[in-house]
Automatic annotation (TrEMBL):
GO molecular function: hydrolase activity
Domain AB hydrolase-1, first and last residues per copy: 11-109
Domain of life of the source: Bacteria
The protein, known as: Alpha/beta fold hydrolase
Species whose genome carries this gene: Flavobacterium cupreum
Keyword Membrane appears in the UniProt entry: no
Length: 254
C-alpha cells in the first residue's frame, strides 16, 4: 500500500507529487487545503518517498496503486491533483476510473509524449557513492557538479535520509529509474476521455504545456479550463504557492 499523509475532514482530495518528489513537497499547501475544508491525502507514489520499491514502474502500475489506495480508504468520490509525473498519473487515473474522480487538476504537464530530459539530474544522483559514507555536504557538492541550479538541488536532496547512523541514502529507487527512464515520458493513450471538470494549470515560464497543446488536451478533457501562473516555472506550486492555492481552490469550490 502506498504511504500517505491524511489530514482534515471533508471532501477527499488526493495530491500526487512529480518525478523524484514526495509527499513532503506538498506539506504546506496540504495544510491550506485542510483549512479550506478538504480531507487531504498526499501520496508517495511507488519508488518514491516512503512508499515501496518495485522493479515494475509504469503509469499503469502507479494508477493501480492509487486505485487500491482508494479502495482501502473507501474513497469513492474524490478530487485529485497531480504535478508533472503525478499529473500524468492523475490523467490516466481519471480517464480509467472516472467513477471515483469528481474534479481533476493537472499541474504543468500535458497528455503528450515528452522526450527524456532528466539526464543531467540522474548523472548527478548516480555520481554519489554512498559506500564511502559521504556527509550531506559531500553529497551536495557531488550533485552540484551536474545540477548547478540551487533550487533543483535542494528539491533533490530532500530525498536524503539516514538509513542507519552514519549512512545516508536516497529514498527513491534510483536503480529502477536508470533502467526504465523512458516510462516517465509516455503519452496518455489515445481515446481516453474524462468528461468532468478539469483544470490545467501551468507556469508562465515553463515550456511543458504550450498554447499549441490546448486542442489535444481538449480531446481528452472536454470540460477543461486553463490557467497560467506568470513568472513561474515547472515548480509553479513552490514558486507562487499563494496564486496556485487561490486558483485551485476556486476551481474546487465551483
Amino acid at each position: 500500500m502506498l504511504y500517505s499523509k491524511i489530514e482534515g475532514e471533508g471532501k477527499p482530495f488526493i495530491i500526487m507529487h512529480g518525478f523524484l518528489g514526495m509527499s513532503d513537497n506538498w506539506k504546506t499547501l496540504a495544510g491550506q487545503y485542510v483549512e479550506a475544508g478538504f480531507q487531504v491525502h498526499i501520496l508517495d507514489l511507488r519508488n518514491h518517498g516512503r512508499s515501496f520499491h518495485s522493479d515494475e514502474w509504469s503509469y499503469e502500475a502507479m494508477v493501480q496503486d492509487v486505485f487500491e489506495y482508494c479502495q482501502a480508504n473507501q474513497l469513492t468520490k474524490t478530487d485529485i491533483l497531480g504535478h508533472s509525473m503525478g499529473g500524468k498519473v492523475a490523467m490516466l487515473f481519471a480517464t480509467t476510473h472516472p467513477e471515483i474522480v469528481d474534479k481533476l487538476i493537472v499541474a504543468d504537464i500535458g497528455p503528450k509524449f515528452y522526450k527524456q530530459h532528466h539526464q543531467d539530474i540522474l548523472a548527478g544522483l548516480n555520481a554519489v557513492d554512498f559506500s564511502v559514507k559521504p556527509s550531506r555536504n559531500d553529497v551536495e557538492e557531488i550533485v552540484a557538479q551536474h545540477v548547478p541550479d540551487f533550487g533543483t538541488r535542494q528539491f533533490l536532496l530532500k530525498n536524503l535520509y539516514w538509513q542507519e547512523p552514519g549512512q545516508l541514502a536516497f529514498r527513491f529507487n534510483l536503480a529502477v529509474f536508470n533502467n526504465n527512464l523512458e516510462a516517465i515520458g509516455v503519452a496518455l493513450p489515445e481515446g481516453l476521455v474524462f468528461d468532468k471538470p478539469t483544470l490545467f494549470i501551468r507556469g508562465g515560464n515553463s515550456g511543458y504545456v504550450l498554447d499549441a497543446d490546448f486542442d489535444a488536451i481538449r480531446q481528452h478533457f472536454p470540460k477543461v479550463k486553463f490557467e497560467t501562473i506568470p513568472n513561474a516555472g515547472h515548480w509553479l506550486h513552490a514558486e507562487n504557492p499563494k496564486m496556485f492555492f487561490e486558483l485551485t481552490t476556486a476551481f474546487l469550490k465551483e
